[in-house]
Amino acid sequence: MITVTDLRKVYRQGDRDVTALDGVSLSVPKGSIHGIIGHSGAGKSTLVRCLTLLDRPTSGSVTIDGRELTAVKDSEIRSARRRIGMVFQHANLMDSRTAAANIAHPLELAGAKKQVIQDKVSDLLRLVGLESFAGAYPAQLSGGQKQRVGIARALASDPDILLCDEPTSALDPGTTDDILDLISDLSHRLGLTVLIITHEMNVVKRICDSVSLLEAGRVAEHGPLNEVASNLGGRLAKALIPLPATPLLPGDPTGPVLELLLTGGNATEPVLSALTRRFDTDVNVLAGSVETLAGRRFGRLRIQLDVHTDMTAVTDYLADQGVAVEVAA
Fold it and tell me: Stretch 108-137: mean pLDDT, rounded?
């Protein structure tokens, strides 16, 4: 389990202090996949550096499986870092080494015996689906294959945590899906806790169990995917279940506009037809989106009602049906 408590990082730039992390707190259950999403400048890179002890936080703590990493002595940092496997945006492989030799490198640094290294590398190549590429050099590998080597190298020290920093942003969509599926499979098979730093919501939607939104060095939203997606007015919910822009044009029907969020069972129910019959009103569907997140179905709709519709009665009825409602216009 990862627990980050009130983490702060302040840098000195010239004659002023710059706060990169301002009280970040989050927890990630053991064996789960957590996404940290945010735009450039949100503090994602600083968080990675503090989690891996490349930078000491100004205050706060990082605890992994009960051990507070921020309290370790400088002489123990290398040992502490072995508990965290790092996967980078670019695989950062050594061009002069084969795939097998790249994976072997951290084991060599740790002083492992030659036979142990050979067996471990062989197992890791099989694990990431590159058994036949052991002797290939990085220049002979595709972007996805390089990233698979990088993942295998990150697993060489048998880490508790796999920390992935923008692991797919340099890959095409098809390869991205393959790498994300591999990370998810490894998490389940090995019991790994995975932390994915990303600016791509599709990464979160595809494999994450929970998510945090980082803004200006602070956690703006945080929680299991199902919970944040169920918050109709939340920024993460809007990003996870996006609606296309639907500007009204001259001549379009007039009337109140509502946004609806349907979750679980009611996402597959004929809510709108029931609404039309009950209130004898027309319903104009302006936009809609359906997503399956963490195994649960979500539907988001923007609808327009007849101008004479009793809005209070409609919103009360929808709430009784378990539908979240927000008046958009």
Answer: 94
